[in-house]
Amino acid sequence: MTEMIKLFVNGEEVEVESGKNLIDALEKVGIEIPHFCYHPALGADGNCRMCLVGIEEGRPPVVPACKTPAKEGMKVLLDADHIKKIQHDVMELEFINHPTDCPICDQAGECKLQDYYMKYEGTESRMRVPQVKKRKVQDFGGGVIHDQERCVACGRCVRFLRQITKTGELGLVNRGDDCRVEFFPGRPINNRYGLNVVDLCPVGALTSADFRFKQRAWFLKRAESICHGCSKGCNIMVDHNKEKYEDDIIYRIRPRHNEQVNGWFMCDAGRMTYKSENDNRLEECTLAGTVRPLTDILADAQSRIEKASKALFLVSPSASLEQLVAVQALAEKTGAAVSAFSDGYIVKDDGDDFLIKDDKAANRTGVDLLSIAKSRTHFDNMAKEADVFINFDNDLSRSLSEEQIGKLFKDTWVLNAATHPGHLGTAMAGKAGASVALRSWSEYHGVVVNCDGIAQKFVGGVMKNIERPDIVEIAAGLGSPATGAAAAWALVQKKIPALAEFGSFLELPAEGVNLTDNEAGK
Amino acid sequence: MAAKVKQLPSRGGTPAEKVYLIEIFKGMGITLRHFLRNLWDNSNLYVRHYPEVQPNIPAHWRGRHRLLTHSDGTPKCVACFMCQTNCPANCIMIKAGERTDGITEKMPVSFTIDLAECIYCGYCVEACPEDAIRMDTGIYAFTSSNREEMKIEMDEMLSLKGGYTEEEYQKGLEDE
Fold first, then answer.
1. Looking at the structure, do residues A380 and A482 belong to the same domain, yes or no?
2. Which residues contact A507 (CB under 8 A, 6 or more apart)?
3. What is the pLDDT of residue A122?
4. What is the CATH number of the domain that holds B112?
5. pLDDT digits over A128-177, tens only?
6. N or C: which end of chain A has fewer CB within 10 A?
7. What was the ipTM of the complex prediction?
8. Residue A137 with chain B: CB contacts under 8 Å
9. Which residues does residue A25 pair with via DSSP β-bridges, in sequence order?
10. What is the extent of the structural domain holding B103?
11. How high is the pLDDT of residue B1?
12. Cβ distance A389 to A413 under 8 Å?
């Protein structure tokens, strides 16, 4: 528990956490101090002067809130006339050369200049001389597009690339109204976290080439999710929208703040995982090569499992805890074997010491917590014995070659439930006895455990035009005791006692539950 | 302020009116009078001979939409989506893309208005920051036997001309 201190804002007493600067401390209690250059992850720079606040009976009487720690008994002035005038004048300065091209600016709707203009300025421009013209569409590399005219020279992007990625591609050059962000000629942004500067930029100076002109920010619906690109489990915001007469598709993925996991950032590869959620998805359920309703396929599969001498279920290491227990419970009931064999999900030497991990599976820790076997030998032995094989969205083509898969399941009846085609290789596509198109992670809710043993909930907000089943529904249809999401979650809580204290999975705290001290660490 | 209430006398209560037959003949008499009058001379007819005689459409009338162009023929629209955002009928569908003619950075790739859904409220015209869309074509009649044909595309809206001079249009806005 952090220590609390009392201070006064506009004469009213508020209680804030100590050890923070005024911007962060007051933001926690809902008092906003406008700022451009300060960012919690990058520290105070003090160049924008927007956060100047008055201190009564203090020396100096006006201080930048980003560089001033909250102190006991401090008397902060936010609505005094001279502070309002400072805010108004700083905004007027920012607007001198601002092109005000909001109609074509992707930042419109989530732009600090727009918000602060409405709140702190709101007057007509007094400029009567022509504005300074600068470069408009400048490719900064790494999928970042720069507009020099919109820049407020806060230096957040420069500081991010120097402090966080330590690559330092960008710098502020020149002074006064000629000040601009530039890269050294021939050395554009070239690192795996470059697109974070787009989120950091408080205005529309840095925009994403990938998202450019795709949607206006206010049309986007937001879903709080967890990135399934690797085992780090970065907290993300999935921005999606269903346009009229079209399908619900994701337009971008942004990082969501979680100090315990990813801080404020995420990698560029994780941002691009939305593309596979939109495109090249399986759409139909087939049985022996013909399109059939799901109930027929499940009925057929269920009778085959009953008759089989041995059945093998392969689960994905990216599946949620609910999905894993649903399949596991089905296996326990039918005497089948469960494997989470997924050696191919681990890409050697791809990870780094920041966010990217070698393991590209979102829930391998969860697989271990539920004691699901994942070794190659176990999988090979079981595959040889089994005469019914059901794949629950494990991309086996990552781990085994097409010949190996073909050889393993030569005489086996195969049900391939998958989100995307090609999980069993192209050769097996025609041979599979049945296939089911599954919901993907942006479309279902659940809980995954990341590489550090932190269990995190995620919400799938995307509603596709084609209704696809979830793995929990399929397992239930095949006779699993976990008859639905709620029953599956109850089973999860039974198997992982550390999660038992929470009601539904939605009651998990936003920052996740660290299981390291309880289960995952042993 | 309280609303002004005008009490109309209740009709149809007298015995003569309750018989109905007398009233029917009175009505027939009126019909006959109009018939005979218009038979000799139809110049003061109460209805317009549409479509032979077209109505006079004032400049502030909200008719078919058109997209305006700069003097060099390039579209004024920058695909800011203000019209689509404000449209209460949700009948405007825009796809934006990169603009390469040097005027600005963004332009619509497709701009569709579903006239079957449009309620001609004019919010799109008011919301437009570039004066790129107007409803001043004076076209008020538009029919189709097919829903798809009721959608008008960007090329068609760009090719339409305004039905009034600029002064008439601006004055029409003031009248409104």
1. yes
2. none
3. 87
4. 3.30.70.3270
5. 999 999 999 999 999 999 999 999 999 999 999 999 999 999 999 999 88
6. N
7. 0.86
8. 105
9. none
10. 66-175
11. 54
12. yes
